[in-house]
């Protein structure tokens, strides 16, 4: 037997309530499958933020699907607290029958269903020899529906057969109907879809083995007196299988007759034979053959078999064979009668009428028979139905509730429910209208209770089998609503009618869903109080959707936001008119805010989303449109989400701020280091071989003509000649602001400036610092003596005999002039020069090479 083992703090037995607690609270669970059993956990919303994670080798891998093969164990968990909202469970078991009589315990697979999840249980039954499978739906039986329809209780049966190469869909069924048994040849696949909201204790059917039937299937139907049943051919609305046949076996009640009516059919294109329908009556050996276009039998007084046979269809253009029909049971002499007691009711009217025209049906009160009757409150009446099918009749009920002054108004939290006197009537309820009439200057407040409400959009259906219409006093529609939504209160400032429309005759319509209260008048036309659920999309539409709001009307939604949550409003569809008077308005305003968070007119674009973190108002108002081409209508979506933790946000912001400060500090330090490195004094070395060395500069990009390396900011003459003067014992008095031409010899290379040395502390000093280098040119016997006064100097210059021959007339002799002379002389060697300092480049003051003219006083032999 398969086991579903779950690991938690305590071991719980296989009780449904206990399993619900385990699914919700356990973080991990262990799932095991038995022989021939597979379990698939699959997400219905793959993009949702919820995954199923499998733990293997202490590592977890998450995805949107988990599939367990037979005899496999997995440890898994979900990444969200409510996985039943996103995942569905499929449990399948393959069974091969070897004996002539087979009985399976269907409950065994039902016990593996996951509580609160939508489960699909699948039984795959096959045979080792030619046998038929009999499905017995004991109890209430089944009711066949179209594939596009759904069951009110969300419990759906599907039956398929593998008789031919193609899978044949016998049909889709709901509980409580006239189908009692289904026989399928050569095995079948039976699936049961269950909603997580419904607790199912019994699968509703059993399986046995029977001799082969040599056809696709046999469906047994048990008719009730005065009832009818709708049935479909296999694969409807697609084609019944080629060259195949099937049967329906009907049990007709005593004293009743049956009639067959074809509602809809399509004919195939036949290559051989033709499609046909054959009727075989119990006790008769002969058969009655009919085509799909013939009039079908209408007075069958006994049990009968109806067989549908398809032809050999044309392969090039087969067409299709499909059939929808109805079988009715009736008794010509039988009169159905019942009592309707309205003595204790007030303001209640009942109308019984035909939903479909039937000239043979008569509705009688006493001796008067009419096609339609109306009964009023305060009376007890006997109703007689002659030759009527109850399912073709409908009951329309109207109840008036109101008062005209506040002092005598009893309407306060009054329940709106179906009167108890209608609960036992055989005629199905078609609609029930509560006409609510409030005093002048008042508001009608509708509270749906725990069920709440949601807008019924065009094309959608309510799962409960009924819906509500809200009508204004002039019968204009405000909207249509289903139970199980997010609207918990509706306030309307005028008289209103609440209409319950029964789509299916379901027992839930007898339960009260509304209570009504009359209150003082509100300024808005309508107010809807909305309390959305977490991560559930709620749709809000303007009144009278999709036609549009009434001119100069307004509507408001009060949206409640729990603490620690936020609501996102998305505008999905909006149509704006051309206004002749006033303007349309769409605004959002927080409950505690003074200003509006959003405000738009008809000529302004709406944002895609708006997020609110507190209770807020969503207000809309219409103008008076210019014409009827466009109307004011808006559809928006409201989603409740958890707000991010403030503490986490603060920690994240603090961490980010600290990282930014650290990065800024590193950037500042890097900039300072680069600036200091850029301002570092560079050192040049004198090289007598004229090969200049430039530390830190591997490439000297500028040529001598393009750079300013020959320009000097300042040269201190005292530092150049002060030591020489001190050695001679003379007190140097350097001349200031006096230009002396240089009259000494000139070489073929420009003078080289003295090197600049780094005076930092180093172990090895190279080149030498602060060491005097004597003049290397030709000298006389005695050194030149500097002139100590200006007059003597001038006289010495005037006397050519006293001028040293090594001195020449001094000029502004620059590096550029030397280059020009070198080029003229054909000297191609160039001397690369060091780059100028930043201050030299800024000042760009051209200083000539220092040249000092000394007055030389030649010793006279005559003296």
List keywords for this structure.
single chain; 863 residues; mainly beta; 9-stranded mixed β-sheet; 8-stranded mixed β-sheet; 7 helices; 37% strand; extended; disordered N terminus; disordered C terminus
Description:
By secondary structure, the protein is mainly β. The protein is 10% helix and 37% strand. It contains 7 helices and 52 strands. The strands form 10 sheets. A 9-stranded mixed β-sheet has the order 33-41-35-39-42-44-50-47-48, with no helix packed on it. The longest helix has 34 residues, at 646-679. The chain is extended, with a radius of gyration of 53 Å. The N and C termini lie far apart (144 Å). Mean pLDDT is 76; it is low at 1-26, 759-765, 800-810, 827-831 and 838-863.
Radius of gyration: 53 Å
Helix content: under 10%
Strands, total number: 52
- Order of strands in the sheet with the most strands? 33-41-35-39-42-44-50-47-48
- Main β-sheet description: 9 strands, mixed
Query: What is the overall number of helices?
Result: 7
| Secondary-structure class | mainly beta
Estimate what percentage of residues fall within beta strands: 35-45%
Euclidean distance between termini CA atoms: 144 Å
Task: Walk me through the topology.
Elements (H helix, E strand, L loop, with lengths): L15 H10 L3 E4 L4 E7 L8 E5 L2 E5 L1 E4 L4 E6 L8 E11 L9 H4 L7 E10 L4 E5 L5 E4 L9 E7 L6 E8 L3 E7 L2 E7 L11 E5 L6 E6 L5 E5 L12 E7 L5 E12 L1 E3 L3 E6 L5 E4 L13 E6 L2 E2 L5 E12 L4 E7 L6 E7 L7 E4 L2 E3 L2 E4 L3 E7 L6 E10 L11 E3 L12 E9 L4 E6 L5 E3 L10 E7 L4 E7 L3 E6 L3 E7 L11 E7 L5 E5 L7 E4 L12 E6 L5 E11 L3 E3 L3 E6 L7 E3 L8 E4 L3 E6 L2 E2 L7 E10 L3 H34 L37 H11 L62 H9 L16 H10 L13 H6 L20
